[in-house]
Design goal:
The complex is a heterodimer of chains A (433) and B (233). By secondary structure, chain A is α/β, with parallel strands linked by helices. Chain A has helices at 10-13, 17-38, 40-48, 59-65, 71-81, 122-125, 128-133, 153-158, 173-183, 192-201, 207-210, 226-235, 345-352, 389-404, 415-419, and strands at residues 98-101, 111-114, 141-143, 146-147, 150-151, 162-164, 187-190, 216-219, 240-245, 251-254, 261-263, 268-273, 286-293, 304-313, 325-331, 336-338, 341-343, 363-366, 371-372, 376-381, 409-414, 430-431. Chain A has a nine-stranded mixed beta sheet. A four-stranded mixed beta sheet of chain A has the order 21-20-18-22. Chain A has a three-stranded mixed beta sheet with strand order 17-16-19. In chain A, a hairpin with a 6-residue loop joins strand 10 (251-254) and strand 11. In chain A, helix 2 (17-38) packs across helix 3 and helix 13 (345-352) crosses helix 14. The longest helix of chain A is centred in the first third of the chain and has 22 residues, at 17-38. With 233 residues, chain B is of the alpha/beta class. Chain B is globular, with a radius of gyration of 18 Å. Classes of the chains: A alpha/beta (433), B alpha/beta (233). At the A-B interface, strand 1, strand 4, strand 5, helix 8 and strand 6 of A face helix 1, strand 1, helix 3, strand 4 and helix 4 of B.
Chain lengths: 433, 233
């Protein structure tokens, strides 16, 4: 395979599994003493567990001896030390190029630190392999920008493409379509609220024509319902790539087989564990994603419990890459107990997206706690497709009850009303009030 | 390291002549405005001068509140901060990102805060006294945020998007500084107009109306223009 082919770094992307695992072990054994010497949190935590990096000679030793790192550990450190670096920083703060963070939708944001060693932001350098695989090439116009997660336009620039800082915002699509015709962009990223908007516009615009210049469109921020994805692919003609975070160590994109997110295992060591026991589960079974950033010398996460529930597979992919894939199934702790029933947000999602008026999958479960006496759900509908709201409410309630076994208490709102509560590309699916 | 390999692989690819394409409103119409890599480098050097004037150096944090479509105005400050040994902390300027904005202001050693707007300032004020939140950072605020910041007893500096250009007030408070090597601002009956000065600049405009009112107060010792915006106080 040449460098102009489907792989940006063919030697690494198709590295035989045994060599990939040997590379992981080499990098892991380098980084453990590095962080122990530099990170106050890891030193404290590992000392308390009675383990020293010199005790770790194999990945197996690592799995058996090194303690997990949890979000509660980070919060606890921050509270005890009033330290915004969470004790993770392994370099002088003066070496940090950029500080980014989680949104803070469920509490204080968690901070991430990067150093631009090669003039590019690390997080978005990770994405170069994926955009190349999607067909992005020098000279293409790529819709990207600097955002609260750093300069996503770096990915375009390092591929020789040209970033376009598209004027965003909801309700702006007709103007954007005009810009699409002028600049002929090849790639953009969509979030759930934007897809819902496009769905509502699909009766008035030929989206297949408007997106004709695009080689690929990616989607992230939250899961996408199967019906909405099918609509984007079949009706709008989008080559649609879903992606997710690699447990806050990097990014994980679908390949052209669209069957799972590839984790770049030369940058991250993945464990796939029973959330209750912390023991490994078989490939293919549901387990919690636990990650170790083996390619990050600034503030690496080591055995970090990402709280993502995944299915995981190390077998080679049909795309030719050898790096493992994961399928995101939800978040640990997403489960809600309503009486004797367990309800997952995806259960509600799959129930409402089958109805034309609510196929956008716009909803929020109102859950002050994890154990509920009733299932209260705010459901968004497309006013243009809705006649009798009482009838729709009845059908939505029946669909949710069929999917969850619980008759919900519904609040019906036009999609726009609920989308106004979105956090950037993400509508919080479980809210306290 | 892998990202070194990705960076080395990328270095084999010739970069596009265009650094990026933004949009701005000129003469009342939204239009695209491209930037070459040389344009970007000019803007980074000018942004460095602004940040140095406000005291940014190694170990400082430069925080911004901006929208993705404002990248062509704010990215020069990003690289300028990094070249000065400071860290860059970006937030979104829209209301849904208030939590992150507040967290950065309260926890990071922010030396300069660029891009505050009226909506964010109102949200900050609902959380406590603004002076305690800002903690002494130099606030370069958009025009709509100046009055509420002043009402709270702060002394903000003006940050203004001027079509494809950007202007920033310096500690001397002698007006909004505009990079005279690239742009010239004129006031025509109180309406500000912009022209490109550098013939090599990718975005060429001639006396384009900015949709802002104000006057040109002159040039300073640094050679840059100074303008005074008509802003409600």
């Amino acid at each position: 395979m040449t460098a102009d082919g489907k792989y940006f770094e063919p030697a690494i992307e198709t590295l035989p599994r045994a060599q990939l695992e040997a590379l992981q072990e080499e990098r892991l054994l380098e980084i453990l003493p590095y962080v122990y010497e530099r990170s106050r949190l890891y030193r404290e935590k590992w000392d308390a567990a009675g383990v020293h990096p010199r005790d770790i000679r194999t990945i197996e030793d690592f799995r058996n001896r090194i303690p997990f790192l949890t979000k509660d550990d980070l919060r606890d450190w921050r509270a005890r030390h009033d330290d915004y670096t969470n004790g993770l920083l392994c370099v002088d703060p003066k070496e940090v190029s950029i500080v980014t963070s989680s949104t803070g939708s469920t509490g204080e944001p968690t901070y991430f630190f990067e150093r631009w060693d090669y003039g590019w932001e690390r997080m978005w350098t990770c994405m170069a392999r994926d955009l190349w695989h999607m067909g992005i090439r020098p000279g293409d116009v790529v819709i990207a920008a600097s955002s609260y997660r750093g300069p996503t336009h770096h990915t375009a620039q390092l591929l020789g493409a040209v970033p376009f800082f598209m004027p965003g915002g909801m309700g702006n699509w007709p103007e954007l379509f005009s810009l699409f015709r002028e600049l002929r962009p090849a790639y953009m990223q969509l979030g759930g609220p934007q897809v819902v908007e496009l769905n509502q516009l699909s009766d008035r615009f030929d989206l297949r024509a408007e997106f004709a210049s695009f080689k690929a469109v990616s989607f992230a921020g939250e899961p996408i319902g199967s019906r909405m994805r099918e609509r984007a692919v079949r009706d709008w003609g989008l080559n649609f790539f879903v992606w997710s975070s690699a447990g806050d160590t990097g990014l994980a994109f679908e390949c052209n087989r669209h069957d799972g997110f590839h984790l770049w295992e030369d940058t991250v060591l993945v464990e796939h564990l029973d959330p209750g026991t912390g023991r490994p589960v078989e490939d293919g079974a549901l387990g919690e994603l636990v990650v170790t950033a083996i390619d990050n010398r600034i503030a690496p996460l080591i055995r970090f419990r990402a709280e993502d529930l995944i299915r995981f597979d190390r077998t080679p992919c049909g795309c030719g890459r050898t790096h493992a894939r994961m399928w995101l199934r939800g978040r640990a702790g997403d489960e809600l107990r309503v009486g004797p029933r367990t309800v997952m947000p995806m259960d509600v999602w799959s129930a409402i997206e089958v109805l034309p008026e609510t196929e956008g999958g716009v909803f929020q479960i109102v859950a002050p706690g994890r154990t509920l006496s009733e299932l209260r759900v705010r459901v968004g509908y497309d006013p243009a497709r809705t006649g009798d709201l009482a009838d729709l409410s009845h059908r939505v309630g029946a669909a949710i009850e069929a999917a969850t076994g619980v008759a919900p208490v519904l609040e019906m709102h036009p999609n726009e009303v609920l989308l106004a509560r979105a956090l950037s590309s993400k509508l919080p699916r479980v809210v306290k009030s | 390291m892998t990202l070194r390999s990705s960076s080395e692989r990328a270095a084999l690819i010739a970069r596009a002549p265009t650094w990026g394409i933004g949009t701005c409103v000129l003469d009342g119409v939204r239009r695209t405005c491209a930037m070459s890599w040389d344009d970007f480098e000019c803007d980074v050097r000018w942004a460095q001068r602004v940040l140095v004037a406000h005291g940014v150096g190694p170990g400082a944090v430069v925080m911004t509140s901006s929208a993705p479509e404002e990248t062509h105005w704010f990215a020069p400050f990003e690289l300028a901060a990094i070249r000065l040994g400071a860290a860059y902390a970006p937030c979104d300027a829209r209301p849904w990102d208030v939590t992150r904005n507040l967290s950065y202001l309260r926890r990071l050693p922010v030396k300069v805060y660029l891009g505050a707007n009226a909506v964010l300032v109102a949200a900050f004020a609902a959380q406590g006294p603004l002076a305690e939140i800002v903690r002494g950072a130099a606030v370069l605020a958009r025009p709509d945020a100046l009055a509420p910041l002043r009402a709270a007893g702060l002394s903000p500096f003006t940050l203004a998007l001027l079509g494809p250009a950007i202007g920033a007030e310096l500690p001397a408070r002698d007006g909004v500084c505009v990079n005279a090597a690239q742009w010239r601002v004129e006031s025509v009956e109180g309406a500000l107009h912009l022209s490109t000065v550098d013939p090599a600049r990718a975005c060429q405009v001639r006396r384009a109306a900015l949709g802002l009112r104000g006057r040109v107060t002159g040039s300073a010792a640094d050679g840059d223009q100074r303008i005074a915006l008509d802003v409600a106080t």
